[in-house]
């Protein structure tokens, strides 16, 4: 773990130190900037917020949104919330896992895609929905997912 990554995370987090309830926005800011919240950054963030490492770790593990390792160049999120579940999200996720050769929170066999779950992408009326690198796609089918993964240019 490069020391400067943890230092960068601490500097980013410190900007939220004086905000009431600032830990969560701080962790979001770190992940937005670095793609993940490095475990080595936890002690520094804890110090900034006058919390224990365990408290910061508890927040990071409570919210599925936070990653502890850097994601692949492309991140595919398959919505698993209620509306999407009712419209075949489980089958879509199974297809994604088979196609990518990895499980949830894993990387595809070629290392190019990280597979994650999401819990509502705001497209409930057009479910099932997925998000690929911050772009949402509605009414997804296994066939359309194959197209999406096959044609998208890596970031
Ligand atoms: S439940 Fe999937 S987009 Fe809302």
From TrEMBL:
Keyword Iron: yes
Protein name as annotated: Formate dehydrogenase subunit gamma
Taxon lineage: Bacteria, Pseudomonadati, Pseudomonadota, Betaproteobacteria, Burkholderiales
CDD domains assigned: TRX_Fd_NuoE_FDH_gamma (cd03081)
Xref: Gene3D superfamilies: Glutaredoxin (3.40.30.10), NADH-quinone oxidoreductase subunit E (1.10.10.1590)
Cofactor: [2Fe-2S] cluster
Cited InterPro entries: NuoE-like, NuoE_N, Thioredoxin-like_sf
Domain of life according to the entry: Bacteria
Family of the protein in this entry: Belongs to the complex I 24 kDa subunit family.
UniProt KW keywords: 2Fe-2S, Iron, Iron-sulfur, Metal-binding
